[in-house]
Amino acid sequence: MQRETSIFLPTQVNVKVHPVVIFNILDHYIRRNVGQDRVIGTLLGYYNDGVIEIRNCFPVVHSEGEQVAVEMEFQRKMLDLHLKSSPKEPIVGWYATGNDINENSVIINNFYREEMNGQTPIHLTLDTGLTNDTMGIHAYHAHNLSLNHESSLGSYFTPLSLEILTFEAENAGLDSIAQTKYDQQSTSLLSELESLQNSLSKLDQMLESITEYISAVEKGEIQGDPKIGRFLARTIQSIPKANSQVMDKVINNSVKDLLMIVYLSSLTRSQLAVAEKVRQSLV
Amino acid sequence: MTNTQQAINDQIIEDYSNPKLDVVQIDGLVVLKIIKNCKEYLPELVPGQLLGLDIGTSLEVSNCFPFPPRDQEDENTESSAEYQLEMMRYLREVNIDSNTVGWYTPTYLNSFFNESVIETQYNYQATINQKCVVIVYDPIKTSQGTLALKCYRLTQPFMELFKDQPFSRERLDQANLNFNDIFEQIPIKIHNSQLINALLYEFESSDSLTTQFDRLGISNNIYLEKVMEGMNECLESLNNDLNKLYQYQRAYQTQKNNYIQQKTLEGKKVDEEELAQMIKPLNTHQPSKLNSLLLTNQVNNYCDQIHSFCGNSLTKLSLLRELQK
């Protein structure tokens, strides 16, 4: 990590956040103490070639009154525990809720700079007040404004580009979690068939909207975007062109295989049931 | 103590002693955490602790943390327990429920009906709270696009049976226990706070996160192959078990016959007590019935998986066939 000395040093750092981190922060905010305005915590993750992946976080106790007090002892203990279970996730920064950065943030940032042995911590803010009707997730790097090495005139926070990163299993998880949006109460998990149906209807929707777009362009109602056109052409090209007879055969074979397996497993199951019945009749 | 407080306390005690459990309510956060922790440690399967509260006949799981992965030497059972206690103490300080309600474990192909899982779960249910559950997560199934999360608990009759070893056929017969009666599955519900719902709405508007077409893949034969392989193995060991039982039975019978024959040759009357004495040591070598019971359960589970998977695949294939026309 670079150690900045001037304010002109460009920061080309990308921040990627996993959804679980944001969930964790929101959960922490919901469980805050009475009268507490905002909550803070430590972010864990790793640096990788200009990309900082934030993979985990944990809450830290602090108080902001006339003085800012962060329980660094607590922070260190928690960090130790997390490092024990996932040693590959060192501390990369800290988070706070609320949409502004105030003078207390600077102090806390300095705390974290010390914890990280002088590296610049990432600061992630999350607007739990939902001003402007968005969650307002932002990441910052703090820089010292100074004329020489000894004195510091102040700090300023530069925003970093941020994106939410998921992997496929997380996608599936998010998808099922997202069902609670429509139903305020808790919902049960979708069965495989139901989720398949959802996917298909989504696909159907997408196809419909693209057909609409194409016909609108054909009629000359809207100007066609060459980018979209090229993308569509590439998509169509990627569909393998197969002889329908061959395809039919492939499908039929798969169906036969599946039916065979279903038959065998049904047979196994009935065997089990018979065994159970025999045992019961012997008692 | 006021009356209302008394009433609340009574309610808590009543809830605690009432073994009924209808539903498990899991926070979205826990789901994501389990997925993340599991992904991190793959291919090792690292279990973890579930934290939450039990209210009436439902169980709320509001947080979780993974156990530290096991070192090469298995000397850290002590430190693992310490780790749990410490973690819970610190979590309590930030107002997170620090009440153990069970544990979770990742598994491949639902092959978790084994003795160690049952033992752990038994300990949870016997010592902490009879409402403790185990949440089983299948990373392979989930990466195909459907969240595979299941929640289990040992049934009351099985708990009784498991309390006293050995696990003989006679006792099993007495309890009249079916292989389906080991675990009971408890329906899962997902719960999110309003803030998280707000976040989910925001995610939905940014398109990058709504790719949900993983589950449309047709060629999942490898998965099916693996399930079949597992089932094959299971059936084989079940067969072995049966053979063992058969051999035991034969040895038992031979010994008994020999004894009676000897007595008749000597012209004495068969002494029932002595016979029982003779046969007793054999009884202790009686193969445990638990193993075959578990294997049966596992086979049954594999069958279920195959059925649901094939049902899905058939649907997809028939769709594709229509598309081809």
Automatic annotation (TrEMBL), chain A:
GO cellular component terms, semicolon-separated: eukaryotic 43S preinitiation complex; eukaryotic 48S preinitiation complex; eukaryotic translation initiation factor 3 complex, eIF3m
MF terms in GO: metallopeptidase activity; translation initiation factor activity; translation initiation factor binding
Top-level taxon: Eukaryota
InterPro entries per the UniProt record, alphabetical: eIF3f, EIF3F/CSN6-like_C, JAMM/MPN+_dom, MPN
Keyword Amino-acid biosynthesis: no
PROSITE patterns listed in its UniProt record: MPN (PS50249)
Domain MPN: 15-146
Subcellular localization, as worded in the UniProt entry: Cytoplasm
Gene Ontology BP, a term: formation of cytoplasmic translation initiation complex
Keyword terms of this UniProt record: Cytoplasm, Initiation factor, Protein biosynthesis
Oligomeric and partner information: Component of the eukaryotic translation initiation factor 3 (eIF-3) complex.
Role this protein plays: Component of the eukaryotic translation initiation factor 3 (eIF-3) complex, which is involved in protein synthesis of a specialized repertoire of mRNAs and, together with other initiation factors, stimulates binding of mRNA and methionyl-tRNAi to the 40S ribosome. The eIF-3 complex specifically targets and initiates translation of a subset of mRNAs involved in cell proliferation.
HAMAP family membership: eIF3f (MF_03005)
Protein family (similarity comment): Belongs to the eIF-3 subunit F family.
This protein's name: Eukaryotic translation initiation factor 3 subunit F
Organism of derivation: Tieghemostelium lacteum
Automatic annotation (TrEMBL), chain B:
Function: Component of the eukaryotic translation initiation factor 3 (eIF-3) complex, which is involved in protein synthesis of a specialized repertoire of mRNAs and, together with other initiation factors, stimulates binding of mRNA and methionyl-tRNAi to the 40S ribosome. The eIF-3 complex specifically targets and initiates translation of a subset of mRNAs involved in cell proliferation.
Domain MPN: 24-158
An example Gene Ontology CC term for this record: eukaryotic 43S preinitiation complex
One GO MF term: metallopeptidase activity
CDD domains, per the entry: MPN_eIF3h
Compartment annotation: Cytoplasm
Entry keyword annotation includes Cytoplasm: yes
HAMAP family, sorted: eIF3h (MF_03007)
Example GO biological process: formation of cytoplasmic translation initiation complex
Keyword line: Cytoplasm, Initiation factor, Protein biosynthesis
Native source species: Tieghemostelium lacteum
Protein name in the entry: Eukaryotic translation initiation factor 3 subunit H
Assembly and interaction partners: Component of the eukaryotic translation initiation factor 3 (eIF-3) complex.
Family: Belongs to the eIF-3 subunit H family.
